[in-house]
């Protein structure tokens, strides 16, 4: 008799690719999306973060803020059209003056995302597009779907909210299997880490091929 072995865990791809895409599962998940986006900045990179978004997007969602930002600054580049946003994103990536460039724009073509991927590699920085959905072709090395979760437990007070948590589902990765992970914000570094480092058991489906229940669109 043969027994089926459980699938091996998929390592959390903590190091970002030159160009990635991430979208929120729903409107209420935008804060989790921005937290995830800021965490894709390479650790120790003190260059500023640039974000370009249409004025309509900023009016609806606001601007990122908080301890997750680098000590330098956030450069906000409001634009009127998606074409202007893609141009600003490409110029920022190509310049190498930023650690991370975020672009809340929709409708990028495959050719445009290829230009962004090349610009990110040329500038030695990370580009992350934040479209409303993941439809269409893209040269992004990874495509993520982000959703917010109930916070963890405060180790000093079970009645108080603990670390902020979110679910990151890798919908497509070049040369990588799809998977999903529960991440939480570290109080000291303000970066995201795997929640199961502290939670131990109970996360059997996280980090394996396929999304955990409740994450599918």
Describe the structure.
It contains five helices and eleven strands. The protein is of the alpha/beta class and 217 residues long. It has a nine-stranded mixed β-sheet with strand order 3-2-4-5-1-6-9-10-11, with helices on both faces. A two-stranded antiparallel sheet has the order 7-8. Residues 197-217 have low confidence and may be disordered.
SSE topology sketch:
Layout: E1 19-24, H1 30-39, E2 49-54, H2 55-61, E3 74-79, H3 82-95, E4 100-104, H4 110-123, E5 126-129, E6 142-148, E7 153-154, E8 157-161, E9 165-173, E10 179-185, E11 192-194, H5 196-199
Parallel strand pairs: 1-5, 1-6, 2-3, 2-4, 4-5
Antiparallel strand pairs: 6-9, 7-8, 9-10, 10-11
Helix pairs in contact: 3-4
């Amino acid at each position: 008799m043969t027994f089926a072995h459980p699938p091996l865990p998929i390592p959390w791809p903590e190091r970002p690719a030159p160009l990635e895409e991430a979208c929120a599962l729903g409107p209420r998940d935008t804060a989790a999306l921005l937290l995830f986006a800021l965490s894709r900045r390479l650790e120790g990179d003190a260059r500023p973060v640039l974000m370009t978004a249409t004025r309509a997007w900023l009016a609806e969602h606001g601007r990122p803020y908080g301890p997750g930002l680098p000590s330098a600054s956030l450069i906000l580049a409001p634009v009127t059209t998606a074409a202007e946003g893609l141009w600003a994103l490409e110029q920022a990536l190509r310049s190498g003056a930023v650690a991370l460039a975020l672009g809340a724009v929709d409708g990028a073509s495959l050719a445009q995302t290829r230009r962004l991927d090349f610009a990110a590699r040329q500038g030695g920085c990370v580009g992350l597009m934040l479209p409303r959905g993941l439809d269409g072709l893209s040269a992004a090395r990874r495509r993520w779907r982000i959703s917010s979760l109930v916070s963890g437990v405060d180790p000093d007070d079970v009645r108080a909210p603990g670390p902020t948590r979110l679910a990151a589902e890798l919908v497509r990765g070049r040369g990588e299997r799809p998977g999903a992970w529960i991440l939480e914000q570290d109080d000291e570094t303000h970066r995201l880490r795997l929640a199961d480092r502290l939670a131990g058991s109970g996360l059997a489906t996280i980090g394996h091929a396929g999304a955990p229940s409740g994450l599918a669109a």
